[in-house]
Queue: 4 jobs
Job 1
Amino acid sequence: MNNVIKRVSAFVMAFTLLGTGTVVTKNILPESDTTIVADAASKFTPPYGAYEPAMWVNYNVGSNGSGVRWLQAALNFTGMIYPSAPLSVDGSYGNLTKAAVKNFQTNFNSMNYGQFSWNGTPISSHIAENGIFGPETHRALKCMINKREHPEYWD
């Protein structure tokens, strides 16, 4: 078995951590049969059945469905919901999701990047910190997903 591993230039296996949208890649290097390198890929992949809502949709406590699942997975992907724990991606906009949205809004406002834009639409550098997922928060979230996927374009 060791010889087989050493003859292979690299064996790559990718799997998705369910519900988080995070892809982790493991490489088994041919120099050693025990070296495993894990890298977090930076592509947001919503869980099955979660679809991005339209930009004009508002979500608040009591909302549910595939758009809320997308929101929960996207919030987890950005890592900007501290001090909230990662959300359960269940499609139900409850108090925990509201708190995570509010934490995202607060953390976004604390960033000092100036003016953002998403597909040419300006995003205020200050969005309402009310825990409601509306168009401004949606554009800010898309911007932060892009930042995580393409850090080379950001400071």
Job 2
Amino acid sequence: MNIGSLTIPSVWAASLLALILAALLNRIFTDKKIGEWYWNSFFFYFFIWKTSYIFFQFTLFLNMPLSIIYFNGGIKGHILALVVLILYLFFIARKKYPSIHEESIRIFLFYLIIYQTVINLIENNRIEMFIHSILLVCCLFLIKRISNQLFFLFLLLELLILSYFGSLFSIEGATFSTIGLIMLTLSKNQYRRRKT
């Protein structure tokens, strides 16, 4: 994606738009501001993923320090960032931000579906974008009644769409599945708390 002479990877543009739009839709449809855990999670992920380049490509970084602007830690950095994200969500955010138990599945669905819609719009995949848009409308319609079962259904539908148009066994599919299961686990903690 080009903005003037600046080239921005479509994944970054879609991620940033999805991050902002998911928080905005959450605010509109629930009248609640999203917890700080949401913003912190993305900051930690991005920071670790981007700076892991130094760790994995130390010699290259020493020769060209500004290369950190253009490069990231790749798949190794992505996995490291996911591990840090999981640790943050389970050991810090879960205790510091009780709202995470209520918000996790809703905001992840918003983010995931908006991300898929935007990335396919940017990459000019109209049919896939249209299908994700329909799923987003359905999600918005049911958002007040979202349960773990509905979340799991929407996640499976997203993964089905992803596998139909691409590969389920990609880094993207694995990432969404992993984070989806984490959000489901965080949400189940809320259900257990209500029962006791």
Job 3
Amino acid sequence: MILMIRFRKSAVVTAASACTVLAAALVSIAPSASAQVWRVTVSAGTSVGLGSSQYGSGCAYAVTVEGRPGDAAWFYDTGAFGTFSPQTVTIGSDGRASTSWTPQVSGWHRIYADSYYGAAATDSFQVGTGINLGSACVVV
């Protein structure tokens, strides 16, 4: 009887150890859950802000996303209306991709870039009324 109790105790300890090792192995090979798009930036380019904003409606701005090479990322503007050309990009081997963004209305905007593995966003910022001069934009 004592021998059977020791055998059961030993079997339980061995099974628990095996489960622990198996769980650790699965965790180490599991894909990362971190975001694969981690930064979105907007360049004011040649805009001249006469008021409190450096971005103007009707003027185009370069938006850059940084993320995992080869991933697709798509852009959207929340809070106010803006368009992107192109709407979807593939992140290059350098980890970056760019699009052109044109805010259509003045007001608060926030740009998101989304991928199948995560998303990133800019801070909210104010867009003023833009006067598009072709090579530059005057923001009032």
Job 4
Amino acid sequence: MATAPQDGITGVGPYEHRNGTVTLFVYLAIAVAQVRMRRKLERTEPERLTLKMWLFPWLSRLTIALMAVVIGAMAWLPDSRSRFWLSLLTVAVVPAGYELRRRMGPADAV
């Protein structure tokens, strides 16, 4: 039975690395959206914010900065550069596919 090649350090194949990188991009988008939405709610509807977030906004900003450093290191380091570009391509293709599907309209039922 054939198996996917694995790296010599972690024993993880290339597809798992790419999935982890895409997940990092998703977490980054969630963190940025959380800061933006919380700021908007603080201005418009502060009564809806019933849960106090620890060290807001500094902890969120630190988290965003650290994720950006990890992504930047992946782009810079030769061993992870191909995974970075494949993940970036995936992150670009998914919203483009969604937009194309949205413009085409709903598919007719068969």
